[in-house]
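ok posting inputs for the NAP job
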Amino acid sequence: MVLPRISKTYAHALRAAAFVLYAEFMRLSGKKVLVTGAGQGIGQAIALRLAQEGADVAIDYPRDQDRGPAEETCGRIEKLGRRAPLIEGDVSKPADAQRMVAASVEGLGGLDILVNNAGIERRAPFLDVTEQDYAAVIAVDLNGPFFATQAFARHRRDVKQPGKVINISSVHEELPFPNFTAYCMSKGGLKMMMRNLAIELAPLGITVNNIAPGAIETPINQKLLSDPKLLKPLLENIPLARLGKSSDVAGVAAFLASADADYITGTTIVVDGGLLWNYSEQ
Ligand code: NAP
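and the output
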């Protein structure tokens, strides 16, 4: 059988139609997002995944840090045909949180979704925790999301549009983690902040949810990943018997950012391979 040859014009038209259809079905087409701490790890994976689903994504990195990884994230997003302004901002400083939101609004022409991802840990037995380390963890992990969300909610109120806030919390919003008390306090506080704001911001049409990852392979866990003595007992505690990947968290963030999650607010989605509620008897 001889197949009819299609003209170049027809082929172009087909390709254009396919692109329009593809764009139509991308869940986040036209959405504008800010991801804090998006130069590496979970934040980078979320930024890339949201861009793959059609969003333009502002990439925040902390002031006074190497901007290389964040620039690389922007480059990868731009290759997908999406916009990715680079935003310098230290979430632990309330004035920076406001500037980050304002710069994202300016760079993207609006802001529909905020992902509070930036976070740090400091390991120390409770009796040895310094005032400085305590303050640093609370400032980044709890004050950061508080003031970024406040700036974001004010923006959505002013433009009279709904919005979505996604906080990257942790299983440690529930689960004790000795030697990481300030971290657990921050994530526990983030849980109550999320529940409170889900109610308080609902009249503005803003949903607020947390994602609680378990043990995910990222630079924050470098020490653990390189020490078999630490890794083995952890893996034995995870029913799915593997560490999580950043992409496991990013997929859930894409869902929460999409219209599929419009009726979800005030909740935490746990992404931990079963770690949090693991229990069995012999
Ligand atoms: P990560 O690889 O260390 O990445 C954290 C990112 O946050 C980095 O890009 C870092 O930038 C940025 N950051 C730190 N302080 C900041 C500040 N003051 N302002 C703006 N950005 C700042 O860690 P991750 O594992 O991807 O963690 C991301 C989030 O997931 C955190 O909230 C963490 O608590 C949470 N989480 C992680 C795990 C896990 O197992 N990995 C589990 C549960 C929850 P620099 O590197 O340039 O400082």
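notes: DSSP finds nine helices and seven strands in the chain. The radius of gyration is 21 Å.
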